[in-house]
Amino acid sequence: MAVLALAAWAGGRHPLTLLGRSWDAAWYLGIAAHGYGRTLYFGPGIVHSDLAFFPLYPALIRTLTAVTPLSGAGAGLLVSWTAAAVAACGIYAVGARLHGRAVGTALVLLWGLLPHSVVLSMAYTEPVLTAFAAWSLYAVLAGNWLWAGTLAALAGLSRPNGFAVAAAVLLAAAAEIRRSRGRVTHRLWTGAALAPLGWSAYVLWVGLRTGDALGGYFGVQRLWGSRFDFGRGSLAFVRTLLLRGDRFVFPMALVIVAAAVVLFALLALDRAPLPLLAHTAVLLLIALGGSGFFESKPRFLLPAFPLLLPLARALVRTARARPWHATVVVTALAGLSFGYGTYLVVYAQTPL
């Protein structure tokens, strides 16, 4: 944030305005202030409705502005920063439970130094989703199914890809039922039933509001240019990018998405627990299979923190054997994160 602030001030702009009111943040602030109902028309087949944005984050902003003197942007940043801290604690808890405290710490460090981690400091929903996802996955690993299902339901109210958390809980519950041959407690059944409720409730509400109960929400997304087409749109965009070239943001997004695929393969080879694999696989599937907003795909993958587990373990091993090498790696990642994050927010004219 210090690097971003210096760059913003040098360009005559205010850093908190950039963090609190850029791109999708303006939509969330509008929903928080006035409720749903805003629609922008850009031409035939291009209609942007605020119904595409899930309700939990604007509801939290509205609550804070009602009980504190904060503005909408200030409340949005407070929610995001608090959620990022809670997410960091949850990520640490997952890493420490699986591989020890050192790996938990390294996992948080790598997550905070991702090229798009600047989004975690903005009035966006990724920190909120990651917080619920991390603690829901930790609850599954600990066998606390009620908490897992409740947090998954809240994750489903945060973002469209929040369904990945519910999918992880449901698959883990199914595996436990199979392992125990059906002899499980009512807490598991209740947690599994709760997990998809948040996401399903909002999708159904939008469907009823638009007159198409099951397809209304997906119709709204299609008008934004977002649809799940099994990757055809993404492949066409990559082909255009490789043949013609484009702004720096798009090649960088391509590299990050490709790295995510490799990291998922490493995670699977590492035999990570099923809930982590399921959560990450669904997020990756949505990012790869969805068309539209290719430049935003790295942001969509921020909640997929289990992808970094193999790297965190490798970093810990390197730090113990060759501390100087680990220091150089972390310093390089920090330079990339600070520089690219500042570029995205202050200079790039590309939606995040």
From TrEMBL:
Pathway recorded for this protein: Glycolipid biosynthesis; glycosylphosphatidylinositol-anchor biosynthesis
Membrane-topology descriptor: Multi-pass membrane protein
Places the protein is found: Endoplasmic reticulum membrane
TM ranges: 72-94, 106-125, 132-155, 189-208, 248-269, 276-294, 300-316, 328-348
Major localisation: endoplasmic reticulum
Keywords: Endoplasmic reticulum, Glycosyltransferase, GPI-anchor biosynthesis, Membrane, Transferase, Transmembrane, Transmembrane helix
Name of this protein: Integral membrane protein
Organism, scientific name: Streptomyces sp. 900105755
